[in-house]
Design goal:
about 325 residues, alpha/beta, TIM Barrel, about 45% helix, globular, Xylose isomerase-like TIM barrel domain-containing protein, IolE/XylAMocC-like, Xyl_isomerase-like_sf, Xyl_isomerase-like_TIM-brl
Length: about 325
């Protein structure tokens, strides 16, 4: 079995407003999950419910995690930063706040998804400079926080692991590396929610080639952590007439928000080649760091799925992925 420790994003334990962060963390720990990614909005809701400042909330969550032996992995997601039209001074000011919260949580990583707004800069020098300044800010105070940069499959400038790795190499900071998510690889080079088959043309070949290049080219030390998620095949192929569609929203973003069960949950329509991706990213490159579940299951919004149930699903999913990663590659 893979030696990686298992974490889970707090939002993946429930999206129901009545399920508060501290209860979600307890549920994860009780299920045997070793780490938690704190979603900022979950922490904000916790602070508002308890009527305490968010800084106090972060300190309380850190104390809770110490008491129940679960580690905070990251604070997430610090979105739409690099190349934004908002003045850099304002963005860095907001980043300073997030980094302060991350340090109070004792989170080693701040997760930064690639920008996905349409009005951002396309200038590579600007993008790299923005990310260098963020990295330098994150390392200017002890403890150093590392920036886990995640290529979104609908990202405006960066949407693949290769473009993200190129960015990591150009930023050239020890505390700047990759957060890799199977959903984004799967929906960028293999899946298509607008296709009746749920797959792109030449999907198997494109994924196989991408994973071969990854194993050959991606330095293991630049993989900060790996996120696992599956995706449902749409019963009604995506179009602007689909009930989930929003004008101006990328179809992959729509897919991400509504239909991301835990890996290999075929009972919920899971259909991405998560095992093949995970095998390349984890087993073939010898990655022994954190693996985290980040799912967005619409069935978790109404409160009928408890955090305890979600945590058990996460653990069972990881067991299945581990077992299948040891098997013969399909690609």
């Amino acid at each position: 079995m893979a030696p990686n420790k298992l974490a889970i994003a707090s939002i993946s334990l429930s999206q129901y407003p009545g399920h508060i962060l501290d209860d979600k963390i307890r549920a994860a720990a009780q299920a045997g999950i070793a780490g938690i990614e704190i979603v900022y909005n979950d922490l904000l809701t916790y602070s508002q419910t308890a009527n305490i400042p968010i800084h106090t909330a972060a300190q309380r969550i850190h104390t809770l995690c110490q008491e129940i032996n679960i580690q905070v992995l990251s604070l997430a997601p610090f979105e739409n930063y690099e190349g934004s039209t908002t003045p850099l001074k304002e963005r860095l000011g907001l980043a300073a706040h997030w980094l302060e919260i991350a340090r109070l949580l004792y989170a080693p990583y701040l997760q930064v998804p690639s920008i996905f707004t349409t009005d951002c800069s396309r200038d590579e020098k600007t993008i790299i400079s923005d990310l260098q300044q963020l990295s330098d800010l994150a390392s200017s105070i002890e403890p150093v926080v590392s920036i886990a940069y995640e290529p979104l499959s609908w990202g405006t400038n960066i949407s693949t692991w290769e473009s993200a790795l190129s960015t990591v190499e150009r930023v050239d900071r020890v505390n700047f590396g990759l957060c890799l998510d199977t959903f984004h690889e799967g929906t960028r080079v293999w899946g298509d929610n607008a296709s009746p088959s749920g797959m792109q043309m030449d999907a198997e070949m494109k994924l196989r080639d991408s994973l071969r290049r990854f194993v050959r080219d991606c330095p293991r030390e630049k993989i900060f952590y790996v996120q696992l998620s599956d995706a449902e095949r749409f019963e009604m192929p995506y179009s602007l007439a689909h009930p989930w569609a929003l004008a101006g929203e990328a179809k992959e973003f729509t897919w991400s928000k509504h239909a991301r069960p835990f890996p290999l949950e075929v009972e919920f329509g899971a259909h991405l080649p998560v095992v093949e991706i995970a095998r390349a990213w984890i087993v073939e490159v010898g990655f022994e760091g954190w693996v985290s579940m980040e799912v967005f299951d619409r069935r978790m919004r109404d409160g009928r799925v408890s955090p305890e149930t979600a945590a058990r699903r996460a653990v069972e999913s990881w067991r299945k992925v581990q077992a299948e990663m040891e098997g013969k590659p399909r690609l």
